[in-house]
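Forwarding the complex inputs:
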Amino acid sequence: MTYCIGISLDAGLVLTSDSRTNAGIDHVSTYSKMHRCETNPDRCLVILSAGNLATTQGVIQQVRRDVQEGQPRNLNTLNYLADIAEYLGDVLVNKIRKHTEQTGFVPDATLMLGGQVHGRNPNMYMIYPQGNYISTSDETPYLQLGESKYGKPVLDRFLTRETSLEDAAICSLISMDSTMKSNASVGPPIEMLIYPRDQFRTPRHYKFEAEDPYLIAIRHEWANHLNRAFRSMPRFEGHHPLSNGDVNIF
Amino acid sequence: MTYCIGISLDAGLVLTSDSRTNAGIDHVSTYSKMHRCETNPDRCLVILSAGNLATTQGVIQQVRRDVQEGQPRNLNTLNYLADIAEYLGDVLVNKIRKHTEQTGFVPDATLMLGGQVHGRNPNMYMIYPQGNYISTSDETPYLQLGESKYGKPVLDRFLTRETSLEDAAICSLISMDSTMKSNASVGPPIEMLIYPRDQFRTPRHYKFEAEDPYLIAIRHEWANHLNRAFRSMPRFEGHHPLSNGDVNIF
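Prediction (whole assembly, two chains):
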């Protein structure tokens, strides 16, 4: 499984991914799911990948080759992020279709694209295995790939467009930590990329191993605060139970 | 969708369920999912239900009729909670099978059974649509039905066998609140039943409507504490980004 988060803020972008892949519980490996394209100084592009590893590796290889060979349609020639999402969708669909036709097995994968092209706003897209894609909204400034449910409440609680890059980064780490606690197939190292709007230089790219002191500090602090919060919740001794006439009894 | 939690503690049992059913987004209704059997003073039994509403209503009706008609195998004649789980599994499988054979549509449902028979320990079982069942463990003292992921981290964080009944009740309400925040198909009223071990009298049965002042207090207090926790997380300004040689760049 996989867990990736992409957040699009007024201040820029924050992308976070785990690094665990598995093909069955005895075939667990570590692969980076974060890929940056920095061959054109007028843009910053990051791709996150989830799903069948052969498919995502094939897509990234194809995309990289299209850049290197100077194909007419590649990451550097398209001038709208939506067009780049469309292009990635086409590459993805072709890769999946080939193997589906040959074997009947559908090696599904999903991509996330974050970035900015000079003269336009930064944005974030999620690209489905069918090749179509969605973006974030003002109300929901984030997208998730993979094992998304455990870590969603904390994102819903804290993220708005106005959230700072560092707060969004911390929120992503808490969300990732909750997910790793509840699902064994999401695992470290965690990669995180922070892109301040209109920068177009190398973004800040972090990697947190399982024993990273900062990750452990976040985990412990969060657990301590939640324990204190839990212990201080209002008691409900005063609440009145229902009488038997109001419930399903037989 | 549905969200139900059953917690088995040294001190007794806590069962919580939402009340929303839906068959498509324009067919949303409110049905209690909590059913108590109190026709034999040597036992306290509670059944929670999730899944196809026709199946769960049919199962409860059959179970109630078996009690009323004094069938040899019913909730009052079986003396082990596991045997009652087995019986519920048989009723469930038969109900599902009949409709599957007639139409091909599989109206799946899942049950939870909590309770205590005199002379034995209280316990909690989850009964699958296939009729088999599992119980809680010392390490995982709870079971969940339905939309379980959003609310799982908070249960993992706070529940042990030694947790008090009231703490488990509060934990369940927080878990339910997180789930309702992230999933529109889980909704109030929330029913909660607290059964202190070896009591064998009517358990405390609560119902929390959407605007219940205590539920609102829990929600606000939890949100306030989490906001404070979030604002006090250690900053990671000091963390060193990776150099470009360590990441996937092209």
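The mean pLDDT of chain B is 92.
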